[in-house]
Amino acid sequence: MTKERLDEVTIAMRAAKEFQDGMVVNLGMGIPMLCNTLVPEGREIIFHSENGVLGFGATIENPAEADIDLLNAQGQPVYPKPGMCFVDHAESFAIVRGGHLDITVLGALQVSEKGDLANWRMPGKAVGSLGGGMDLAFRAKKVIVCMTHTSKDGQPKIVRECTLPLTAPRAVSLIITDVAVIEVTADGLALKEVAPGWTAEEVQALTEARLLVSPDLKEIDLVT
Amino acid sequence: MTKERLDEVTIAMRAAKEFQDGMVVNLGMGIPMLCNTLVPEGREIIFHSENGVLGFGATIENPAEADIDLLNAQGQPVYPKPGMCFVDHAESFAIVRGGHLDITVLGALQVSEKGDLANWRMPGKAVGSLGGGMDLAFRAKKVIVCMTHTSKDGQPKIVRECTLPLTAPRAVSLIITDVAVIEVTADGLALKEVAPGWTAEEVQALTEARLLVSPDLKEIDLVT
Amino acid sequence: MINKIVPSFDEAVADVFDGAVILVGGFGIAGGTPSQLVRAVARTGAKNLTVAGNTGGLLPQMVEMMIERMATLVQYPRDYADIGMLVASGQVSKGILAFPASPSTQGKMAFEMLLEQGKAELELVPQGTLAERIRAARAGVAAFYVPVGCGTVVEEGKEVREFNGECCVLERALKGDFSLVRAHKADRYGNLVYRGTSRTFNATMAGGSTVTIAEVDEIVELGELDPEAIVTPGLYVDRVVLREKV
Amino acid sequence: MINKIVPSFDEAVADVFDGAVILVGGFGIAGGTPSQLVRAVARTGAKNLTVAGNTGGLLPQMVEMMIERMATLVQYPRDYADIGMLVASGQVSKGILAFPASPSTQGKMAFEMLLEQGKAELELVPQGTLAERIRAARAGVAAFYVPVGCGTVVEEGKEVREFNGECCVLERALKGDFSLVRAHKADRYGNLVYRGTSRTFNATMAGGSTVTIAEVDEIVELGELDPEAIVTPGLYVDRVVLREKV
Questions:
Q1: Cα–Cα distance measured from residue D177 to residue D104, given in angstroms and rounded to the nearest whole number
Q2: How do residues C58-111 score in pLDDT, each as one tens digit?
Q3: Exposed (0-12), middle (13-18) or buried (19+): which is A152, by Cβ within 10 Å?
Q4: What predicted TM-score, i.e. pTM, was given to this entire model?
Q5: Which of B48, B82, B87 is closest, CB to CB, to D223?
Q6: CB-CB neighbors (< 8 A) of D134 in chain C
Q7: What is the rounded distance in angstroms from the CA atom of residue B101 to the CA atom of residue B184?
Q8: Do strands A110-112 and D121-124 pair parallel, antiparallel, or not at all (unpaired)?
Q9: CB contact under 8 A, C233 and A95
Q10: In 3D, which of D102, D198, B35 has the Cα closest to residue A51?
Q11: Considering only Cβ atoms within 10 Å of each terminal Cβ, which end of chain A, N or C, has fewer?
Q12: Angle, CA of C86, C90 and C94, to the nearest 5°
């Protein structure tokens, strides 16, 4: 039996629930980038992008509206927004390295039970790209990972020890996957939420690291 | 017999002759600041001031024309000029430290025969101010000193070894005083020019360090 | 909704605590000094402060003389107050300064007098190094090597090391508890623009402390500031207070 | 008279020499790449270049595919050329890059292929560290300690040291022989303004090399650029070349 997993937008929506009013947030490539338009109503978020823009708007779908000089770090055009500003790359990463980001949401290849993050070199590739992910993972106040719970070939991505080279040790606070929400705590990985229809045991079966089932385990909550 | 010495404006005028077209120049407090309006005709100079302005104009004499937000490092109002721009203090000194200044003209209490500069703590004062002079003396491509040849109580200021605490070792290239122009060379101090009516011997008599009289010694030349 | 505007200077500095490290913006000339913020910190009575900034400041009575002496050149703002006011109120125990003492034998800076009385400690810093240390704090750089200061008093007690054959001094980031900065315009995000040479240490210090407080001439609607010309992004600023016209 | 405007791209890069270190601006997205300068460097035929920049670039044939694939989102400039063009012309022997390889298993970046062929050396750098190393060169900072990279491949072969209980890695300034930067407007002093997210590495690299060359959309009269909004002071720029409208 194959249980239904959450789609990318739902994963991103759950991540965006973590954004509190007034926070400064950076979104990594892939699923994280979707959070941009999923901020809960009534919260004002300043999005930071590595390529030197703060406070930009939603992603633009129509190329006729696109401005080649207003793109996010993935190269997608975005809308301008009142209060937006631009900085150069050194200042953009002064913001990152200086600890001025409240949250970064990143993709991952592996996360360990200690919160180690590996997301820069794919298995089988001789070369990887650090991009800005390492700076972000080391220095944002809170690192949230959004990813599929298992790799394309079904291998667990939440592991005891990362086998891929690390992006940052002990960096991740919260893991949001297509089947669960897991908090990295001093005691280990706390399973807090599961996708509809999933049990803790079923999530554990897809997870190499041992999960501590939270006493208040609940179904993934996208509303409150 | 007291020989006539050059006045401050004449010293500054001689210093300004060193500014070649297109150079970026910083002027220290006192005599050096006078260079601002004494640039030889036909040369375009970008003046840098520590407090974050590049390419400003002449000093303003009439307070009615002054803008409280357009002052030089001495706090004097200056005119705006086309091509001017502003930077913050970190960038202002990135310019200095990064070696982007062609010339700085500084005052001095003592200069040694090796070009050591002492200009931050007056004799008899318990405390001194480094200001931006140390950054400038260490990092400008060429350091020119403008000063009186002797102190108020008649002591030589061009010495074998500085007795006052150093601003920067081996920093000074050219010394312009009220009686002479002296170049700091690998061999020692080369006396290049003397004030009208002064002989090399008379200058040496006011100088502790030994002067090498240049074969082409001449009277201070303010024209060419 | 993000709104960093605070109704009064007193409210903006109410959490300044005894022993705090305060980065005070400005250069010590007529423009660009966060005078009202300095006055408000004086009113808190917080003691044992470390002040970092360009100059050792002027005692209030010296400010009067200075204003008079400079009147033929430029008119000082009537409310001018700098580090000297905190010295005068007995709140300062340490200075991290580039210009602690008057360059002339006549007249003394406020901090200079305090030092001569043995009532304070001085960390004397080249001006560029001071700016870079504050920028390093903002940028998450722990320490850095610069050539400035080798072979002078500045290297005393510091690590010295050669890079590419050049002697360099190891300097540490200088992070404040509070940055007091003077800007021209702000919006409710805390985005700041400055005016001319009043940018100086103000823009360097914004973001260099745990809490950055800006004193501004004008507050504008979000979107009114040109995104290409904003100097300090709002995320570096925690509180904005509007100056009354003086 | 100061006049940094050079009539052609070829003239602007004529002194690029074999073995030069070239900082290439832009981020690797549609806007902000100094394409015409890159094309001119390709025409010099200078060999054994070290290129520093964000990405490993795209081979010319990949650029075509990229432009097509991205057409539903944003239109690339028709003359787009990045580090990949220098790789394609066999001019690159080393890359100092944050993003040398494609993040997907399909498709490869130009430098990635070169590396797999054993024809180049890679210095892999976190993006923020890369920007800071270039800024350090501009600012006369010889080296600096940052926490980013501790406990990862980045610390290999580098000094590691604790500051305030936090592990930091010693990183060196990265100075280029030439910076190729893309800006929006310039004046004859070389003052530059950028547009939006095309500022990025361009403004960081301006002043980070012995020679900085800017490719701009427009040249304006001295005084037309707002002194409060100039991002790169002209003293950081040696040559300015105007793009033809494409």
A1: 33
A2: 999 999 998 999 999 999 999 999 999 999 999 999 999 999 999 887 789 999
A3: exposed
A4: 0.98
A5: B82
A6: none
A7: 19
A8: unpaired
A9: yes
A10: D198
A11: N
A12: 75
